Fold these 2 entries.
Entry 1:
Amino acid sequence: MKQVLILNITRMGDLVQMGALLDRLHEERPGVAVDLLVDRRFAPVASLLKGLREVIAVDFHELIDESRAHVKDVVVLYHETAAWAKPLAERRYDRVINLTFNRPSALLAGFIGAPDIRGARSAWDGGLVVENPWMAYFCDFHLFRRMNRFNLVDIYALGGSRPGAFAPLRLSLAREDRTWAQEALAGSAEWIAVQAGASDGMKAWRPHLFGLALANVSKRWQGGILFIGSREEEATIAEVIQVYREAGGKNPVMNMAGRTTLNQLAGLLADCRLLLTNDTGPMHIGVAMGTSVIDLSVGHVDFQETGPYGPGHWVVQPELDCAPCGFEQVCAHHACKDRISPDFVADLLGHVLQTGPCPTEVSGVRLYESGVDEDGLGAFRLKAGRESPVTVWYAAFWRRYWYEAHTGLRSRLPPPEGMSPDVSEVQGQLRTLQPLLEAACRRADEIARAAGRAAVDISELKRLQHEQRTDQERLLRIGMATEALAPLSAAFARQIRNDDVIGLDRLARHQAGAYHTWLRRLAEIERYLVDISSGDRSATAGHADKLIVVGRERQAA
């Protein structure tokens, strides 16, 4: 492997979160040349990343707008896109890593081409397929996100390269930007940065609560408060400052929102003691600059996926059954934002600023401290509050299962303690699902045989396929209804759609393979759950060895 191209054209934070992937690629092949294709709006962030040979910036935003507005016909757009993409194809990359999971990026990845494409690429018929099990996992974990314990940083690194040593996020900042930031912050000996807004209002804590929390902490700390963000957040910041002043806050305040380049923003964050923020792109910049982060995780944000990576950070999440809510969910109450007390946030700020103890007596929220787990991946440890015992057990179970299945390595994490809290319910669901799935496998095999005959009986094939679709809907309803089975059901749904085959017979064999994989995994999980529940760790290790063999076979393939 000599040359790698990464496609990452959607969000600023996603670029910063590529840091571990870049380190891992250079570990995998010292001297490898890594190029990055990025939207022009985010090129300044890309320029701060370490380990890139070239940043290729294209105005994808304009291209999509022109396509939607029919400014140019599709043939002209295709020829223009092909003209600038052709030189990339001519470079003959050894690997293309597509971290943007949409149809346009898939077409682009397929057009550029490489012997090894990871992530979304176009199928022969223009559809979208996802290569690499970690990339498929990334597409699917929103279906069982409360059990996901893989940070996006690690999924990028594992899917785009391979397992390796923990690598913190890092950005490279020019000396002039550091000097500019130091001069800008000369008015106080110590600063905390605050981002009270967010590009999506669902992800933002309430402005007046920011103001109350900052006023509270100002009574025990004498530094300055630096507001960051975009110009669109001016009204939010003005409300925070007004509430802060009315509540007695007297510390110096500086508003730099929309007044810096991204490089200057990185310099400011590097010189701040900590960053209090919603889940935003600047949060990841702060992490990469070595600044401690307090992440207020509200709305549809799940810190397990996109929270601050590596040790030294804190996350506050509302203690609600619906938190985090789904991406497509419309919330009528936003009660999660009112669960986080400004006094609790002030106490946490005080602890990070070393003016008080860590708050542990808390109501309505969960407090997590970030760190690194035994496998060298980012993790979060509960410090205060309560989690559902069912979610805790299955999150630990699935964390080990997918790591071993997808890497071919033994996880150093211990299996969850004792039996699952809902073991009786799960055993009943398994008894219901397993015979139905066995019947579905037989039907899928029958369809494959019918589709492979020299003279295909179309009416018979249609009948079998209709029965198969009906059964599939039923199987997925059962499989997605429980935390014990949902991840396998989601993996099946991805595999059944993830086809790039030509011919009715090959498509039928592909689908039959998906059913048999589901059944095999279900049997593995049943044995695994029984052995863990019974305390038979030697049998559990044996099942883990089987997963490791399967993982190695997938890597070799």
Note: Residues 196 and 505 are 56 Å apart (CA to CA).
Entry 2:
Amino acid sequence: MNTVILLAAIVALVLLGSRLFVIVGVATALCFTLFTEHTDELLQLDRIVTKMEGLTSKNVFLSIPFFIAAGAIMTKGGIAKRLTDLARALVGWMPGGLAVASIVACIVFAAISGSSPVTLVAVGSVMFPALLESGYPKRFSIGLITSAGSLGCMIPPAISMLIYAISVQGSAAVDPADLFFAGLVPALFIAGLLAIYAIWVGLSVPGSKEPFSAVRLWETFKGAAWALTLPFIVLGGIYGGVFTPTEAGAMAFAASVVVACGIHGDVKWTQLPGLLVEATTLIGSLILIIVLAFGLNDFLAEVDAPGVIRHWVETADLSAWQFMLLTNLILIVLGALMDSISATLVFAPILAPVAIQHYGIDPIHFGIVFVVNMEIGYLAPPVATNLFVAAAVFRQPFVEVAKAVMPTLGLICGALVVLMYVPSLSLAPLHWRDGGELWVAFPWEGRVVVEAPVEAPAEAVDAAPRVMTMEEMMKKAQDAANAPAADPAASGADPGAAPGAAPTGEPRAMTMEEMMKKAQEKVKADEAP
């Protein structure tokens, strides 16, 4: 009965057109009320404030507002138009060249904005009328641009990758820069499949080719030169180790302001505050979604959902390829029924540790496969963000847009299968960078045996809290780190260093992962007999 009440409330909110953060918040509150005995704790508003405070301490999250603000400025300015003009001059002479140019423009713009919906709006508003004017079928044009715009999930600095990096911890934790690097080849692989499809359709469109002109190519290159510096600044800085993802977001924002307002003049300085207000509204909605999704994670931890899944995996005795296939089928269904950000925040922390600890799947590889699933979620009805965005941009009924993306959605699903079982497509760039082997075999065999931890004595278990929250672990780790050592030599600190200085060889500030690890070690030490 409780499950029926929960589902009925969610359906009612969807039919009423409620905002996503309202739906997630109500679902979280009902889960605590109907399925646990912790309703009083839920009613304490400082729980939400604490979650927000913890979120702002994540350096990865701080990059997202910068990229959203940069995308808003670039969409308003003429950067997308300049990039699409250059793409047309570069590949427009090919069969289906204009359609291929749409894909190229989406790739380049996504490398600046990091957002799939922003890429779809910016490029789609320019290229969709041009495709129709050149004789391409309307349904093909809608489907291609909508799917190509979704490459923003894969092209660094993708916000979806940042969300994934925020959501996973422990053995499943990944460096966002590594995730960016690993996403390049999969993104280009999917873009290549879409380009082949575009060329095949373009062969039957009489006006699909434009005459090549070196003069036009040079003129459009000069017009887009400053816009082209943006992806080089962002990606070059991340891959070259010059910036962290957060610093890259700040650089993208600063560069977009300089190019759009100072150099091109497409955005007036007086318009900048209004654009920032629009971006702030979107950022605020995103923060609420993430915080409330973390609350839902607390509920899943309360009912021991990760333990239930681990137990099911152990009893099902699935091989690695069977587990990955089942996981992706589940994620595709979830992506079609949930917002992709919420699905990532709720299910990545549950599934990633199982894939890594029980099947030996590389954390980066699993992260890329997860993000591709979320890209499919942006396109798969009924809850598909980019389908709603496309319906508004192209002024078409939602059902028409959903039908239009089916061929390209099928191509992306086929690409997912290849990426799933050929981890080298994700990991080879990282191994090449680090001097390792380029070929990485998928762990086709059965599960990896993980030794169970030694159980603590009953007295220690009774005395210790059952589950520590993230805030408790961080506080315990910080207290342990700040406590003065009795013997400077034993602590590894320099005896001549100033009070409060970091020990020799250690960074002055600890990352969240280090703090959590230190807290867990402290708890285990306290529980030991």
Note: The two ends are 45 Å apart (CA to CA).
